[in-house]
Amino acid sequence: MPKAVSLFTGCGGSDRGLIDAGFDVVMANDTMGYARDVYLANLPETDYVLGNVADVRSFPEVDLLAGCYPCQGFSVGGVREAGRKINYLYREFDRALRQIKPKAFIVENVSGMRNANNQHLAVNQLTRFRMAGYKVDWSILDARAYGVAQERTRMFFVGIRSDLGVRYEFPQPTHSLPGEDVHGLPSCPTIRDRIEDLPLWPEGEYDNQPFHWYYLSRDRWRDWGQVSRTIVANSRHTPLHPVSPRLKRIGTDEWRFVEDAPARRLSYREAARLQGFGDMTFPETGGTRLRYRVIGNAVPPPLFKAVASAIPDIW
Ligand SMILES: C[S@@+](CC[C@H](N)C(=O)[O-])C[C@H]1O[C@@H](n2cnc3c(N)ncnc32)[C@H](O)[C@@H]1O
After folding, report:
1. Which residues does UniProt mark as catalytic (predicted)?
2. Residue segments in the chain with a per-residue pLDDT below the cut of 50
């Protein structure tokens, strides 16, 4: 069984995918205590090192290194400050890569990395990884095409050590997108497929803060037969559950419920299902917001599994 080290591990979306793809994750690392707690409650075999990656001085020898730096650097906000942060974090990944020299690595990040403002960062990372001795390919993948019932696109870099003489090819879709049947593949699953069996009003498991103007500045509703909108880390911005009345547009960036009926956000448990996790254990050491946060930060396990499984047999 090939061995892996995971950095920026969070609660383990990437690692669930690696394990499902046949890897043994021997070490994980993150700064967030609650992410560690959720991880170990669900994947207890891994040595999870809690703390800043910059303080991890040595890594075990493994075949694969995986890492998903945080994405704040690529979203709105002070570009210069964000730039400094992300430079620092991918340098840490690069340091681990040069120390371990694994046969392959996988990096996941938000697709915003290819936008004009951030392109230099993507190019910088590619250059570093190539200089570290890897043939590197990148792609933007749509999670729906790999069986995830959610709108989520992510950027991946996959590198294979140059001396192995093998090139990586990103996996072909396993599911057709909504409204498409071009590949003769099964349709991607819907919200119904993933959460219909769960209670309709799971008290205490969803964020019930009021729907403020920012929340109602866009359409947060999807029906049972559709895929979910993106599951985010901030519980206040979590999409609506289909039991809620639909929203209608009443102006620029202004939406209203079509009727005065009870409405709610998806619960953290439903969010986990829609990310492609199975049923997870959430330890009591963290409350509702932290539960949403670790789930929203995660890579959908089926997507990471597909990327990892597409690495040729170099182990
Ligand atoms: C996008 S999330 C990773 C998601 C994770 N791979 C998963 O699939 O569940 C990025 C993670 O990086 C962690 N992080 C941020 N700065 C860090 C640092 N300096 N050292 C270690 N982890 C850090 C955050 O706490 C967060 O959990």
Report:
1. 71
2. 76-80, 82
The finding on whether 173 has its CB within 6 A of some atom of ligand 1 is no
For ligand 1, the distance from its centroid to the CA atom of residue 307, given in whole angstroms, is 19
Distance CA 154, CA 304 (A): 10
Closest-lying ligand 1 atom to the alpha carbon of residue 301: 8
Of 9, 11, 39, 307, best ligand 1 pocket probe by most atoms within 8 Å of the beta carbon: 9
72 CB under 6 A from ligand 1? no
CA of residue 287 to ligand 1 center, whole Å:
19
Domain range annotation of the chain:
3-176+296-309
Cβ–ligand 1 contact at 53 (below 6 Å)? yes
User: Parallel, antiparallel, or unpaired: how do β-strands 64-67 and 153-161 relate?
Assistant: unpaired
Contact at 8 Å (CB) between 315 and 22? no
Are the CB atoms for 147 and 175 separated by under 8 Å? Answer: yes
Residue 68 known to be catalytic: no
Distance, CA of 228 to CA of 144 (rounded, Å): 10
Ligand 1 in contact with 275 (CB < 6 A)?
A: no
Handedness of CA 72, 158, 187, 114 (dihedral sign): positive
**Residues 288, 310: Cα–Cα separation, whole Å:** 35
Structure token digits, residue 99: 């120390």
Contact call for residues 65 and 4 (beta carbons, < 8 A): yes
Could you please state the CATH topology (level 3) that the domain comprising 3-176+296-309 is classified under.
Rossmann fold (3.40.50)
Q: Which residue is catalytic, options 11, 68, 71, 188? A: 71
pLDDT in tens, 118-153: 777 788 889 999 999 999 999 999 999 999 999 999
CA 161 to ligand 1 centroid distance, Å:
25
What contacts 21, CB < 8 A, 6 or more positions away? 304, 305, 308, 309
Question: Which of 30, 106, 73, 26 lies closest to 290 in space, CA to CA?
Answer: 30
